[in-house]
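Structure first, sequence second, as always.
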């Protein structure tokens, strides 16, 4: 009798609670690399993020609260979802104490869970292109403005700590014109799922 081949998914680490996000946005950004992000069970390993803080002009919160960025000024551990260039949704994780208005932009995932659903939503098969950018991953995971201000430790969102050691690379952030010198982009060095490779 022939054996049926099964595609295995990586084991999940401990669930991340909202308290995880109540720290320096740069510490959280670093520690999110290798964590798993799921939305209704669909998602993958976070391989690239960027940190933003209200004290630097690239952050949406730099000029104070608005109806769009209000969630950034609230307590940590909530999703901040916004439309980028009027086209793509982007998802951020609010960090630090209430009023700090800091957040981590999720830039890329390595797909591990619900790959069929991601391919259907993205209308493509290439695993490396499914979630290799902030707009791509929100489309793949079905994230929209409806997820804005939702807690990061309750359904439909689930986050799990990384389960293995990896090399975290750092570099300057992508696609911005202000505070371009800050090395606040973090990712898995050598990952094939990044939006853009890190310089050696």
């Amino acid at each position: 009798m022939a054996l049926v081949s099964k595609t295995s998914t990586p084991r999940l680490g401990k669930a991340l609670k909202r308290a995880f996000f109540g720290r320096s946005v740069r510490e959280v950004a670093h520690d999110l690399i290798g964590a798993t992000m799921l939305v209704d069970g669909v998602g993958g390993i976070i391989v690239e993020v960027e940190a933003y803080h209200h004290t630097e002009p690239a952050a949406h919160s730099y000029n104070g609260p608005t109806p769009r960025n209000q969630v950034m000024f609230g307590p940590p551990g909530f999703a901040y979802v916004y439309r980028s260039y009027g086209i793509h949704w982007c998802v951020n994780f609010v960090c630090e104490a209430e009023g700090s208005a800091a957040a981590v932009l999720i830039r890329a995932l390595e797909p591990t869970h619900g790959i069929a659903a991601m391919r259907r939503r993205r209308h493509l098969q290439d695993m490396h292109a499914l979630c290799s950018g902030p707009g791509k991953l929100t489309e793949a995971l079905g994230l929209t403005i409806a997820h804005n201000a939702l807690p990061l430790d309750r359904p439909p969102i689930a986050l799990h700590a990384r389960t293995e050691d990896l090399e975290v690379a750092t570099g300057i952030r992508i696609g911005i014109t202000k505070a371009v010198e800050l090395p606040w982009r973090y990712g898995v060095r050598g990952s094939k799922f990044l939006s853009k490779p890190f310089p050696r």
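Margin note: DSSP finds four helices and eight strands in the chain.
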